[in-house]
Design a protein that fits this description.
It is a single chain. The chain is α/β, with parallel strands linked by helices and 278 residues long. The protein contains 9 helices and 9 strands. The chain has a 7-stranded parallel β-sheet with strand order 5-4-6-3-7-8-9, with helices on both faces. The two termini are 32 Å apart. About 13% of the residues have low confidence. It binds guanosine-5'-triphosphate and magnesium ion.
Length: 278
C-alpha cells in the first residue's frame, strides 16, 4: 500500500498526480484508541516524500473509497475488540517486527518467566503454518493461531477482524495479558490497530541502524522498541548509539529495552514493561 494518506478523521487522499513531491507530509497524529500521545503516520509516507511519477493509477477516487471502507471496518472491529478486552479485564499488546527479528523466541522466554504469575494468552499471526504457535505450546499460555493466508487472502498483517476471529478460542475472562504476535513485516502491521492497549516492536541489531528512517511508520507507531540479538554485537559493526539517534528522530517518546532472547539477558526488563501495561 502506498500513494495515499489516511487522516485522523478516517478520510484518505491519494497522490495520483505526477509532479515532484517537495511538500512535507509529516503531520502529527494520535492513535485512534488514544493509547499514546505520540505520532501515527500517514500510510505511504515512505513512498510519498520523494520525487517520482505518481500517475500510474487512473482509479484514484475508487481506491480512496475502498481504502476508507477497509480502514473504517477495521476501526469498528478494533473498537469492538477493545470493548471485549476491557470487559474481560485483559491488557493487550500488539507485538510487531520484521521477519525473524525474534518475536517468537522472545515470547517463549517471556512465558518461561511470567506464566507462573501472569495469566497470558497469545494470538499467533502467520501467513502459513503453525510453526510458531507450536513453538509456544507447553509454556503455560493459551495460544490461538490465525493463518492470514487461509480465508484471509494471504494478508501481510493481522487486522482487527482477524484478531476478532481468534477471540472465541481464548479464555479471555481468565487472562491478565494477551500478546498478539503479528505477521513479520515492517510496513503493513503498523497501519492496522487491532484494539490493543500498547504497541511493541522487536528490532534485531542484524537489521542495520538506518531502519527507523527507512520504515518510520512502524517505528513511530510503537510505545516500546525491544532491541534484540545483543549477543551478536561483538560479531557485527552495528552502532547502537547511531540506531538510538535514528529512532529518536522518528519517535522520541519510544521506550527502548535491550535484550538477547538467546541468552535471556534483559528479558526481565521486558517482562517488567509488559506487567506494567495498564
Ligand atoms: N543470536 C540470536 N538469535 C536470535 C535471537 N532471537 C532470535 N534469534 C534467532 O532468530 C531467528 C528468528 O527468530 P524468531 O523468534 O523465529 O523470529 P520472529 O520474529 O518470530 O520471526 P517471524 O515470526 O518469522 O517473523 C531464530 O533462528 C532465532 O533462534 C537472539 O537474541 N540472538
Ligand atoms: Mg515468529
Amino acid at each position: 500500500m502506498g500513494r495515499f494518506h489516511r487522516h485522523e478523521d478516517g478520510t484518505v487522499h491519494t497522490h495520483d498526480h505526477d509532479h515532484d513531491h517537495t511538500h512535507d507530509h509529516d503531520h502529527d497524529h494520535h492513535h485512534h484508541d488514544g493509547s499514546a500521545g505520540h505520532r501515527r503516520d500517514h500510510a505511504g509516507d515512505h513512498l510519498g516524500d520523494h520525487p517520482g511519477d505518481h500517475s500510474g493509477y487512473a482509479t484514484g477516487t475508487q481506491r480512496v473509497q475502498v481504502l476508507e471502507a477497509i480502514f473504517g471496518e477495521n476501526d469498528r472491529l478494533a473498537a469492538a475488540n477493545r470493548a471485549d478486552f476491557e470487559a474481560a479485564g485483559v491488557r493487550v499488546v500488539n507485538l510487531m517486527s520484521a521477519p525473524g527479528a525474534g518475536k517468537t523466541l522472545l515470547l517463549r522466554e517471556t512465558l518461561r518467566r511470567l506464566s507462573q504469575r501472569v495469566r497470558i494468552g497469545i494470538i499467533e499471526g502467520d501467513i502459513e503454518t503453525s510453526l510458531d504457535a507450536d513453538r509456544l505450546a507447553g509454556f503455560g499460555a493459551a495460544v490461538a493461531l490465525v493463518n492470514t493466508g487461509q480465508g484471509f487472502g494471504g494478508e501481510c498483517h493481522l487486522d482487527a477482524p482477524m484478531v476478532r476471529s481468534a477471540l472465541p478460542r481464548l479464555p479471555l475472562a481468565d487472562l491478565d495479558l494477551l500478546i498478539v504476535e503479528n505477521v513479520g513485516n515492517l510496513v503493513c502491521p503498523a497501519e492496522f490497530t487491532v484494539g490493543e492497549h500498547r504497541r511493541a516492536m522487536v528490532y534485531a541489531i542484524t537489521e542495520g541502524e538506518e531502519k527507523p528512517l527507512k520504515y518510520p511508520v512502524m517505528f513511530r507507531s510503537v510505545d516500546v522498541v525491544v532491541i534484540n540479538k545483543l549477543d551478536l554485537l561483538p560479531h557485527l559493526d552495528f552502532d547502537l548509539d547511531l540506531f538510538r539517534a535514528n529512532l529518536r528522530k522518528v519517535n522520541p517518546l519510544a521506550t527502548t529495552i535491550e535484550v538477547s532472547a538467546r541468552t535471556g539477558a534483559g528479558v526481565e526488563d521486558w517482562c517488567g514493561w509488559l506487567t506494567a501495561v495498564r
